[in-house]
Amino acid sequence: MLKLVTIFVVLVAATLAVHDKFRVEFQWKYINVTWPSEDARLAALQNEEYIPENNAIAGIKLWKHRMYLTVPRWKNGVPVTLGVTSATPQNNVTAPNLEPYPNWEMQKVGNCKAFQFVQSMEIDPKGRMWVLDTGRTATMTLEAKARCTPRLVILDLENDGKVLRSYEFPENVAPKESAYLNDIVLDHREGGIAYITDNGKEDPGIIIYFLQNNTSWKFRHESTNAEPEFTGFMVANTRVTESVHVDGIALSPASASDRLVYYTPLSSLHFYSVPTSVLINRTETAGDYVRELGRRTSQTDGIAMSATGVLYYGLIADDAIAAWDTKQSDALMQTVISRDHRLTQWPDTFAFDEEGYLWCVTNSLQNFINNKVNISVPNYRIIKSQNGGLKSYQYFENGTAPELPYIAAGASQITFAFASCLTILLVSIIQ
Ligand SMILES: *[C@@H]1O[C@H](CO)[C@@H](O)[C@H](O)[C@H]1NC(C)=O
Ligand SMILES: *[C@@H]1O[C@H](CO)[C@@H](O)[C@H](O)[C@H]1NC(C)=O
Ligand SMILES: *[C@@H]1O[C@H](CO)[C@@H](O)[C@H](O)[C@H]1NC(C)=O
Ligand SMILES: *[C@@H]1O[C@H](CO)[C@@H](O)[C@H](O)[C@H]1NC(C)=O
Ligand SMILES: *[C@@H]1O[C@H](CO)[C@@H](O)[C@H](O)[C@H]1NC(C)=O
Ligand SMILES: *[C@@H]1O[C@H](CO)[C@@H](O)[C@H](O)[C@H]1NC(C)=O
Question: What are the coiled-coil residue ranges (predicted)?
Answer without folding.
Answer: none
